[in-house]
Amino acid sequence: MVSNLRFLPVPRFLLFLALAGVRPPLDFSGVWVLDESASRGVSPHMRGAILSVEQTGNRIRILPLGHRDKLLGDEIVADGRPYEKTLGNGKGVVTAGWSKDRGSLWLEVTSGTRGEPRAAIQRSVWKLSSDRKTWIRHSVSASAGETAEARLVFRRRESGSPKSKVTPGAVPSPRSRD
């Protein structure tokens, strides 16, 4: 019976702790232009990249503006839990979360075979400058005994700059976590 239910008061500090983790510490939303002169290890597909980032909570959606023939859009869920994702022609596992100091986002992407599911690994750290005008993506990849490193520096495009049109729905969302 509903009338017999009693609600216990929740101490304010417990409510605060429950809500503290709701808002991500960084917001990467905006239009970002790759600064090739400040970057190193830039792949040919990333040259001239302009990315639109839309972030809602822990979901980060990245869409290329221009270069659509070379770059694919992506969506990341930054909740620290691994999830399966289509990567190129195969599947892999993505895990992303906020650093303990809440000053950066870390990502790990693994792919391989059933016998060796971690045959290829890429680990990345994303940081924003304190003025939120520079986004640095540092990545290290390892596959078949070879390693590669990239440091991509993006500059925020000012809101008055011309923008390319973003096609909604161009990126499939990862599986729901609700």
What does this structure look like?
Helix content is 5%, strand content 41%. By secondary structure, it is mostly beta strands. It has a 10-stranded antiparallel beta sheet with strand order 4-3-2-1-10-9-8-7-6-5, with no helix packed on it. The chain is globular. Mean pLDDT is 81; it is low at 1-8, 10-21 and 163-178.
Low-confidence stretches: 1-8, 10-21, 163-178
Structural class label? mainly beta
What spatial order of strands do you see in the largest sheet?
4-3-2-1-10-9-8-7-6-5
Mean pLDDT: 81
Q: Using DSSP, what is the number of strands? A: 10
Termini separation: 29 Å
What count of helical segments does DSSP give? 1
Shape: globular
Radius of gyration, CA atoms, in whole angstroms: 19 Å
Element string (H = helix, E = strand): HEEEEEEEEEE
The major β-sheet equals:
10 strands, antiparallel
Percentage of residues in strands? 35-45%
Regarding quaternary structure, what we see is single chain
Helix content: under 10%
